[in-house]
Amino acid sequence: MKVPLFHLGYTLDSGQVFRWTLRSGWWEGVVGDRSIRLRQEGDELITRGDADEGFLRQYFRLDDDLETIYDEVSRDECIASVIDRFRGMRLIRQDVWECSASYLLASYANVPRIKMMIESVCRTHGARLRNGRHAFPTPEELAEGGDIASCRLGYRADWLRCYARSVRDGEFDLERLRALDYESAVRYLKTVRGIGDKVADCIALFSLDHLQACPVDVRIARAMRERYGVEGSYRKVSEHARRHFGRYAGYAQEYLYISEDRARKVPRSACSPGTRTPAP
DNA sequence: AACCAGGTCTCGA
DNA sequence: TCGAGACCTGGT
Q1: CATH of domain A64-86+210-280
Q2: Which parts of chain A register pLDDT below 50?
Q3: From the Cβ of A217, is strand B under 7 Å away?
């Protein structure tokens, strides 16, 4: 299929999703119960597996007008250069259940470990697919049996099982969540044990279309400190970013994230703190 | 071998 | 509302 401005590699390797791996030129992943393989050649996206065009258009937010978003968030030279470096990276629209359950596990762990935890949860609780991989388990599957102790989730195991049960029992209502505005959604999400400020923002941004959400993890905190001179409480940093970058702050956040991520290996792309702009 | 990781919870000011 | 400490576990 033909795609607009889009970079598959940056998008799948930006720490948003955890079930994709690059193997001999193909990105292989499972989304819900779809097993998919993808490869990009220019503006052509080549697909194998259970991926129809409509699904991919939704999943990769191909209807987002990136140029408009770039114009909107490019409030300073620093973010503009980061965007330029990773042009085409898109936010991914994830299923609310899979996204929330995944990020519940993501706390205080690095990406390789998060991937391991999620794979073992899928292997022990999810339906087996044709190619040997496993679907992401439903709340029912996760609430019932399965050897969750073998998944090495640490203290997250209780969080996950409790969350699955409360979703299964209708005590936590995903449909209700979907209907809420950004701030109400975050408030509701934080009633779940194991979901705090950061994870709630991730869920809001990655699965609820609240593009103003700006999750602040250690990398974003570092970027905001070093590049904008902003530090302090989660609320302070996150709200500053939201004011500074505007209604698409979540996009800006993801570009900062991937930039900080790549900067660990590659020497830092010089972006002096002097490019700071005054707060309104 | 330390230190860190897409943080949250609890508790005390 | 904010900061400090503890915390399962595996990468780096």
Answers
A1: 1.10.1670
A2: 268-270, 272-280
A3: yes
